[in-house]
Amino acid sequence: MIEMGRATAAALKAGVVGGVILCVIGLALGGGSPGDLSLGIGIALIVFAPFAGVLVSTACLLARRDPWALAGACLAAIVLAGLAASLL
Amino acid sequence: MEPVLMAELIAVGALSGTLGALFGIGGGIIFVPVLTIIYGLSASEAVAVSLVGIIASSTGAAAFYVEKGAANVRLGLLLETTTTIGAMAGALVAVYIENWILLAAFAAVEIYSAASMLLVPERAPAPTSEDDPLSFSYRDDKSGEVKRYRVGRLAPGTALCAAAGAMSSMTGVGGGTVKIPLMNLMMGVPMRAASNTSNYMIGITAFSGAIIYLASGSLLMEHAAAIAIGAFAGSIAGVHASRRIDSSSVRRYFSVLLLFVAAVVLLEAGGYL
Fold first, then answer.
1. How far is A1 from chain B (nearest CA, A)?
2. CB–CB of A75 and B74 under 8 A?
3. pLDDT tens digits, one per residue of B83-115
4. Interface predicted TM-score (ipTM)
5. Could you state, in order of their start, the residue ranges of all structural domains in chain B?
6. Handedness of CA B48, A58, A67, B193 (dihedral sign)
7. Domain containing A63: what range?
8. Inter-chain contact A44–B200, Cβ cutoff 8 Å?
């Protein structure tokens, strides 16, 4: 079974490191389509990383039938509901 | 973007990211005044850029702390649930309350927390049994020891996190400076574990706000990218610095930081910022 700490850390790291690399590339390319695209994807990756961490933590807890999975599931549902309400 | 401006924003991000990762506070208290006063961004532009910086710094630090077992993910998920509900409620209520009253109340909480942390010795109740679901452990980076503790007053602590979330969304100041004292003073979570857990939680709180700015197209992408690069680099520096500082010193420095935050918030309440 995947260890929750390692899996969550991997999700967080993938988002933030990948995002920062794309931001560096975007700033190096300067204004224009390729640079703007790189910045956009990079910032989106950084912004989504914490939520990806919640989803991975919750999935690991669910797989272990850990009762704390309920907290993760509630948090994911609340965040998504809040987002939907804000964006609509 | 001008190279000089880019370098300055990266430096601001690095400074804030280091402090944020070290103490679990995110760094918005530095980002927003600097971006508005020095760089002339509007309040909403500064908040949007700040949220991306907060996520980069807290997530960079949390990735390390979670992997090393130094943050309490389970407790973080639970407390973040009520924090998020509180933040949503706070955003709805904020329009009915004078901003200076909210800021003054926030500063009072910060001063009380700082005084308590300076004057009251840390107590972390030991677990009563191995099977206790509220018993946790974390690895102290400085000593390398695995320390066990029991989370106390879970229900009131979780409920008060809603108040922390509401206060945070009403004042625009990050919740880390409220949640860490709450976890440490009320719930008996050791200072180091509390600040590491806060790093994990802060990114989740900031995500909800940042995604709205990103979707609306109102985020200054180049500013946000430069701040995020600096904040991520700063978070790595903060994580390394935390290995050299023992838990009691972190608590003492954090108290001083709370007093600084209270002073900034009081200046804002008085209309000086």
1. 16
2. no
3. 999 888 887 787 788 878 888 888 888 898 898
4. 0.94
5. 3-269
6. negative
7. 4-87
8. no
